[in-house]
Design brief:
It catalyses: (R)-carnitine + hexadecanoyl-CoA = O-hexadecanoyl-(R)-carnitine + CoA. The structure is a single chain. By secondary structure, the chain is of the alpha+beta class. Among the domains are: 90 residues, no CATH class; 302 residues, Chloramphenicol Acetyltransferase (2-Layer Sandwich). The chain is 45% helix and 13% strand. The protein has 23 helices and 20 strands. The strands form 5 sheets. Strands 13-7-6-10-11-12-3-18 form an 8-stranded mixed β-sheet, with helices on both faces. It has a 6-stranded mixed β-sheet with strand order 14-20-19-17-15-16. Helix 4 runs antiparallel to helix 5 and helix 8 packs across helix 20. The termini are far apart. The N terminus is likely disordered.
Length: 737
Amino acid sequence: MAEAHQAVAFQFTVTPDGIDLQLCHEALRQIYLSGLHSWKKRFIRFKNGVMTGVYPGSPGGFMVVVVSYMSYNKYNQLDPSLGLIAKLVGGVLVGTGLWVTIIMVMRNVLKCLLSWHGWMHAPHGSVSWSIRLWMLLVKVFSGRKPMLYSFQNSLPRLPVPTIKDTCRRHLESVRPLMDDEKYERMEGLTKDFEKNLGPRLQWYLKLKSWWASNYVSDWWEEYIYLRGRGPIMVNSNYYAMDFLYVFPTSIQAARAGNAIHAIMLYRRKLDRAQIKPMFNTSRLMLQNTIPMCSAQCEHMFNSSRVPGVDTDTLQHMNDSKHIAVYHKGRFFKVWMFYDGRLLLPREIEQQMQRILDDQSEPLPGEEKLAALTAGERTPWAKARETYFARGKNKQSLDAIEKAAFCVTLDDTEQRYDADNPVKSLDSYAKSLLHGKCYDRWFDKTFNLIVFKNGTMGLNAEHSWADAPIIGHLWEHVLSLDPIKLGYTEEGHCCGEPHPNLPGPLKLSWDIPAECQEVIESSLTVARTLADDVDSHIFPFKDFGKGLIKKCRTSPDAFIQIALQLAQYRDKGKFCLTYEASMTRLFREGRTETVSCSLLVAAEKHQNMYRMAMTGEGIDRHLFCLYVVSKYLGEDSPFLKEVLSEPWRLSTSQTPMQQVELFDLVRHPEFVSSGGGFGPVADDGYGVSYIIVGENLINFHISSKHSSPETDSHRFGGNIRQAMLDILDLFQLDKKTK
């Protein structure tokens, strides 16, 4: 009865005296609370917009400047308005102008300071006086208590490298991969491009860099992600895993309750810009000094990728008060607020348990509906327009696409099994990456997946942001879940169920037979792709960054060299290698390619990494030049050949960004498994790794069964042996003795 009571705002009956309105006071109360909540959010967003807009100034600083200026004028009997307006108004206007001037000066000085990247070239562990002075100035001009987006207007724009430098570095990167004849041919193409077409294309890029916030990111988002017509499942989406060794509860609904509540708390902080600005952590000595762009955070929630015939779009809602939940072929809409407040973990567990206990059957076509998001994009776009543009199908689709995020209550069990580590982790990874191909809504910014035994993970769509953004959220969730939120001895969320909480709403569909055929067709494509994925995840426990640092080399460079050695042993040759580096030191920056060939030394790798981070990379510049050439209708043999080469080894490190949230010294069991992605090339490998604490490195390897040249488990063995062999070269045992 509680559900029906909440659903009707008012009732009316016809009497001999006319219409008798009987207002439902509880329903009106809920409407009032909902409106109050909405206005609170609007006010908070308005306030945050003002605070961010005037940063590094503040309203308090405004009052100080205005009052000080007016006091000075009064004491000296000055008239700043020259008699045109009253002294009070003149004082306020001049004081405001002075305050704005101070803000603009501070902001531009900070932008100039952040445009200097000499600190990246300083040896680890040493800080020169010039860098110390620079750090002090950055701190001074950064203001007090910055919010998440406070630094956006102070971040420099991504610079456009010169054609000459990019061409030179490209030739350096491909030289080890080519014999003399091939290299001479590539050298000729490069020099011709550098002399003739290149400067013309460069002019357009320079023009764009002056006009746009970032000369790369919008084209990268559009052409690399949104215009792709192939499946985004496996090819684009990626995953994040749970703790490796800790299993907080085996109750599925309880784990979902804590995780969903933690995610909603993160969203609240994000809406209020209360999350601390993200800083570069590559140098501990500069921690909390160098801000990074936070623009990608804006689409984390209430967003979805919407298919189009030629290109997809990103749909974002300012707010969403519900989530969408999938379980055993049914979709549910679950409200996250009641009585004007966010549901508590035990109340969310109550809602999840109601869904688990629901014995209703899926409606025709509903069970495998999400397969549309796993297959080719064009059939999904046409089906969406034909069958989901109106009526109950549109309302139900809106409930999914406009949800804060999606949740899958998976009916399988996944977990790291110490007795069978290889099979258990491989199965876990494949489930997060693609599942059954119809039980994750792959278009959603991210899906929280909670398995039957309480293990969980994420599947994230890639176009809206890169992995570190979702990783920041996931670290927050894992840090809150077992320790701060906790569970009872029985494994339930802390607290009590709500006696009057309305239940979840089961979505209704009317999917015709023709649409069901499209769904089955998409599912066939998706299953073929999923079945071809060869995943292998293994924890490397022989040593970690603690021992690598004793070799006086970068852990990332050490691992990258090991990957090159493993690749050579696996295939008998080196290949183009992709390593992602972030460019978020610049406004709206995303990623750049670090390594394009064999890295002959750790120092070389580190230098290339620094160049990529500071806007001097090769790949994105060449990509944008290619886009300009297409707009101009110019054909460039050089760009065509360079950009058509496949990345047969694609690598990425999952960074731990909030190390202060996890005390791995006292609680070494709370280590993350990290995350991974599918293979980029049909005959290549995708490798993700996370350096956890001092003694553990987790590797995630993917390839395709259909390729006779690859085997993820074989490659994993090669990586492990390469790590051990490179360590032996340093002869640490002899040095210790």
